[in-house]
Amino acid sequence: MIIPSIDLMDGKVVQLVQGREKALEIKEPPAKFAERFTACKEVQVIDLDAAKGSGSNAPLVKEICKKVNARVGGGIRSVDKAVEFIEAGAKKVIIGTMANKEFLSELMEKVGKERIVVALIEFLKEVRKATKNRVAAAGGISSLREIRSLEKEGIDAVVGMALYTGKIKIEGVELG
Predict the structure, then answer these.
(1) What global pTM score does this model have?
(2) Taking every pair of C-alpha atoms in the chain, what is the biggest distance, in angstroms?
């Protein structure tokens, strides 16, 4: 399964290179841009400002959650924040730095384990072997060959820049 990725920074859809340098900025309003992915089973929405602790795009994230089946991440460091996004329409929340047993146990009680995605991009194959849960790779995926390789391992591919630039095309979804 391919999961389109929408990264938000300063109120805009962006794509960063190596998580730092802005390579692409979409002029279209984020919620309007997200409508391109309504046919997708899931869309990943990451608030980069919240992840870096430099701001928040929460209102935009919530607006996007009304348009697509969103899995939301970036700066979710409290159970209350995760619940807030679920209540706003997010189908799932992505937990990164707070992915510890205590936090995840409390979050599972509040939203259910089926609504939690743990961001573990390194050691994907080992993680895949250790669990029956779905595993997703994000960041830098730029070819169908990479996607097929991940699929062989039973790993989903989260794709951003390659979709925006047309390097990878999803049948039936127009991107620009």
Answers:
(1) 0.74
(2) 43
